[in-house]
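Two folds, back to back.
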Amino acid sequence: MNSLSSTLNETTRFESPSHFPEPYVLIVQSDEALAIEVRQDLRDAGYLSIVAPNAKLALRQIDDRPPVLVVIDQSLGNESGFQISMQIRRRGMQIPVLLMMNKDGVDDRVACLEAGADDYFLKPYRSDAFIRLVQHYLRNEVVPQEILRFANLTLDLGLRQATRNGRSIDLTTKEFDLLKYLMENAREVLKREQILENVWGYDFGGESNVIEVYIRYLRLKIEEEGEKRLIQTVRGVGYVLREL
């Protein structure tokens, strides 16, 4: 099995609804690479999601436990995303449905509306445009504002609790604030000045090593069980939360 298939099996396998007590987004996607990318973007934005690779599994999941949003690829091998959207509407469900479309012609837009979809976005897939659309339709959901996720690290903003691989991590107030800022800006290189201003709340001058000290504290705690490093140092600039 190649690495892509292995990753898909680990991250997008069809799960029993009992494994997802929180509101979640259902991704109906048969393209392995695209499914992984979409799910990663949703996770980074704070949304729980699962993937169904075909209509049968998608509709079974929807019937068992409706998601808060459904994202469907218009082309699913031998299946049509339009048909899945229509079947959702025939069930009387008002779940927001977004279609990933190949074209943006008048006929395509009409077909999208006739299928009962609420909106669409175009291929090639663009993460920023997709997440903005998701946030628009889920702006009243509490999940994205309450829980931040990156890789296997989770930060519950309501409980002010961090976990990694299910292991609870106790953080001081400033450690929590620093990790929150890093997770909110995952994969973005943050300058020391930005971190000082946004976490400590002032423009700190001089040669203080306060950031370095707290980064070290965080690393000791989130890497306690030998997990791989997530907070990376960018020499001469600052820090970034990303996987290597």
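---
second:
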Amino acid sequence: MKLKHGWIILLLPLVILAVISCGKKQETETGAKKIAVGYAVFKPVTYVDEDGNPTGVDIEALKLIDELLDEYEFVYQRGEQQAIFAGLQSGKINIATTNSFWTQERENRYLFPKENLGMNIEGMYINKKFTNIKSLEDAAVQKLRLAPMLSGDGNHGILLEFNKRHPNTPVEIPLTDNAEAFMLSFNWIAEGRADFMVGPKQYYELLVESEDGDLHHLDKDVGFVEFGSVRTWPIFSKDEQELADAYDRAVIKLKEDGTLRRLAIQFIGYDTWAFEGENVY
């Protein structure tokens, strides 16, 4: 099945969509160091526009960061998420931007900057028959069935954190190695094979709620219940501390002057940064 909006990338099991060919930092004619930025297709965060150019709320933020850093020149390379992470470890990629959440596993392998680049409103994709479920704790207490999810996924990390905060009412987390699990979860919920899954609000809006969404036919069965927010990050290779420090300085400027808020409204439709003080994971 061919999906719109670039979501086909989530259904391709570890298929590289573009050759990640750039090696370690190289100098341009101006003396700036070339930085390989790997990105996957997660519209509206990172994607390719009609002219074939990388764009999205995070891509446009990174372009502005690049303008503030004369010593660097960012070069964007599209790929599948697992391949991009592999590129971080091998040195072929310097920065990965894949709408990533923090997890301990990722912290052990890669370098997280001090400043996050974005915010996601996080919630449950849930069968609409559960009209009494108003929070993730409600789902846990009533022992609703979570759809199987990939281990190490950012949403998996959120559930692990929830279980730490709620040791008496944890969510049972079934794990799978099926790379298609996230997309399949919507059908599983609609069919009653599972009761809910967790994920960002904008993906529900794009896939299910939107009239031209790939999964809009499930709108009568699958709803969304917000329960918090989560910070999202670009991830750096371990030896890029100097680059990460420069990134942090630039991001602080973009936060203080309201640029990141304006980009969120432009690409997502509302100010996700307004939820930074809410129940954050």
